[in-house]
Amino acid sequence: MKQISFKLQIFEGPLDLLLHLINKNKVSIYDIPISEITEQYIDYIAEMKHFDIEVSSEFLVLAAHLLYIKSKMLLPKYGDAPEDEDDPRTELTQRLVEYKKFKKAAQFFCEREFAGSRTFYKMREYIEPVLIDESLSNITIGHLVSAIYDISERIKYRRPVNAERFKGIVGREVVSVFSKLKNVLKKLKTLKKINFIDIFRNVKTKTEAVASFLAVLELIKMNAVKVSQNNGETQLKYIKKRKGGSGIFGNTKD
Fold first, then answer.
1. pLDDT tens digits, residue range 24-63?
2. pLDDT category, 98, cuts 50, 70, 90?
3. pLDDT score, position 183
């Protein structure tokens, strides 16, 4: 018996072994040298038996099919036989093509499985819904837009910014929203309730006005202030935090 030149290994099935032999011999799957491949295939099955490896019936069925194809290709063609007679290897080629597709898909999902096993994510948790203060039910986006537009119009007619604030070719004033938030919160803690327009009394630039407006929105978002309408005036009321609660500046004592 001819010695096979590849190392003995376990294949997932007969088509896996056959595809390995085709790749090893560097031949086209659409033009299989059936005689050579059949001989190597049978040699491999013999080696499996030699090493007391159980040979599945599927391997034997494919071996018989290869011998059938080999014998059919060796039979002489008679003169009255049609020239376009089907190649006996066609059905086997189609099976191998389909097997390659599934094998490639299986390899892709296997790689995805290992990649996913190294991915860690936070489990979903329940977030308790925040009840909106009823005083905000009458406040719409139109009120907010109207308020900031009114502030912008008032600032437009004030004196221009001092030229000393401009440095270099392009200068701009940097106003911290956080600093404005502290100023507004300080006023509210002292007065407990102020009109929305009073926050912009000493504002001189649009940048400062926008920062002040964003500070108010942030306080509303944190439930630190309550917005209400009183005689056509928008008012902000300070909401006292419970003792030991955490605010924007950490633990605060009111």
1. 888 888 888 888 888 988 888 888 777 666 667 888 888 8
2. very high
3. 85
What is the C-alpha to C-alpha distance for residues 154 and 31, in angstroms, rounded to an integer?
86
Token digits for 204?
């001189």
Give the model confidence (pLDDT) of 185-205 as tens digits: 888 888 878 888 888 877 878
Q: Where are the domains of the chain?
A: 14-75+86-117, 134-251
Residue-wise pLDDT for 140-159, tens only, equals: 778 888 888 888 877 766 66
**Secondary structure (H, E, C), the chain:** CCCCCCCCCCCCCHHHHHHHHHHHCCCCCCCCCHHHHHHHHHHHHHHHHHCCCCCCHHHHHHHHHHHHHHHHHHCCCCCCCCCCCCCCCHHHHHHHHHHHHHHHHHHHHHHHHHHHHCCCCCCCCCCCCCCCCHHHCCCCHHHHHHHHHHHHHHHHCCCCCCHHHCCCCCCCCCCCHHHHHHHHHHHHHHHCEEEHHHHHCCCCCHHHHHHHHHHHHHHHHCCCEEEEEECCEEEEEECCCCCCCEECCEECCC
According to CATH, the superfamily of the domain at 134-251 is Structural maintenance of chromosome 1. Chain E (1.10.10.580)
